[in-house]
Each structure stands twice: as C-alpha cells, then as structure tokens.
Amino acid sequence: MTLRPWIIAGLLLGVVAGLGLALSRTQGPGPSAQPTPPLVAVAPRIRPLPEAPVRRRTVMDISLHDEAELKDMLHHLDALQRAGLVEKAPVAVVLHGPEIAFFTRKGYASHRELIDLAGRLDAAGVIEVKACRTRMRMMGVKEEDLPDFVETVPFGPGEILRLQGAGYEVRRLF
After folding, report:
1. pTM
2. Which of 29, 134, 137, 151 could hold 33 in an S-S bridge, CB 3.0 to 4.6 Å?
3. Close Cβ partners of 72 (under 8 Å, ≥ 6 residues apart)
4. Residue 77 lies in a domain
5. Which residues of 112-133 are buried (b: 16+ CB within 10 A; e: fewer)?
C-alpha cells in the first residue's frame, strides 16, 4: 500500500503536536516564566485551517481518480463548515475526470457515503457540484444518471476558466 505524501505529512504533524503537548505537561512553568505560545507545526504542502471565515469564492478543479481522496476533500469542507469557517459562498466542485462515475445513480450502493455527503454539503450551500458533459459523453454517462444536485456544464476546464474570470480562486486536486 502506497502512502500519499499528505497522509505522511498529517501523521508527522500529529506526532510533532503530541510531542509538544507531552513536553508542556512534564515541564511546568518556572516562577517567572512567561507563557509560551503553543507548539504549532505546519507540514509542507498542507495549509493550516484559516482562522477567519473564508470569504473568497473558490473553485475546486477535481480530477481525482480515487474515491477516498474525493471523500477526504469533502470531509475537510464539511469540517470547515461545521467550524464556521465557510460562509454561504459555495465552493464550486468541477468534476471532469473518471470520478464522475462515483456520482452515478447506478453506483449509489457502492458510493453512498460520498454521494450523501456531497448532497448534504450542496443542500447546506457549502458546495456546488458541476460535471463536465464532454467527459460524461466519453464515459457513456447521461445527465439523468446523476443525482439532481449535480449540475452539468458543457466543458469542465472551460467552466473553471469562466469561474476564475468571475473572481473565483482555483485550487487543483489531481
């Protein structure tokens, strides 16, 4: 099993944070010690959660070929929303790769958790899921094969450029 770099970075972050917590409990402050700021470790390529609500509009350029990666991204957005760090400016999630197959009605039994999570986030105004019709045609997927919350667009990369031109920040997940 191959561990992805972000999993390794997350594990390292947990070890460093746990070590800092253990050290802070074993070393009590001296009589005139100044309070020390908590130990914060940020692994490369992992952005810390924002401290203030996210105010800019974001488009997620999705071309993930692993259901677990897509679920992780949606769980992260769900956690941000639950923490009050995402406002009602939905994140546009543009699907234009084989991951479109995860959202088909006939695959619901296999991908129930992913589809339900995406549907709940869409209903809460956290995300807008958009699927590329060009890629759908190549895969033999029709619009009626997708859940009602998935909007279709003529060409995924073109939609990303359109949203970027409208002021969205683009984040690519490949």
Report:
1. 0.64
2. 29
3. none
4. yes
5. eebbebbbebbeeebbbbbbbb
